[in-house]
Predict the 3D structure of the following.
Amino acid sequence: MTGWIKQLNDYDQRSFSWCNHRYRALAQRKLVRWISHSGDGYLYAGLALLLALLQTKSQLQYALWLGFALEVPLFCLLKRYYKRPRPYQAKPALKAVIIAHDPFSFPSGHTTAAFLMAALLTWTWPSWSWLFYAWAVAVGSSRVLLGVHYPGDILAGIGLGSMIAIGVIACVS
């Protein structure tokens, strides 16, 4: 392991163990699972489909299509490059509430997409930014609480989603 990845892994192991132990009861609540599921992709596809059905050729519609055309392959490539096992795979004693559909955790795809979406919606409706980003933070946090991501995976998702949003907004503006 290279230096920064080892440091991130050491930090993540300690912080995940702390969260897993401290917030175990909270992680069992259906609300946490619902928040996580809100980042599954249906919301993004639904908004893009709604805009298409309304036949609005808005910058947001183009930004959504371009953003997610970039986001999905990028986070998939990064996951396959780093091949970081999920917390419950690395340490079976750490309990997960849900089991993820793929074996790799870095970066968090849910968080990447949520921050991309929050940034694009904020660009369109800036007065609602607090709500969009609160939701994105909740999605990322839920992934740690549910036991499928380390905090570092969430930070990487925040950075990746934000960078994609900046690039997309620059392209469609």
In short: Residues 68 and 113 are 8 Å apart (CA to CA).
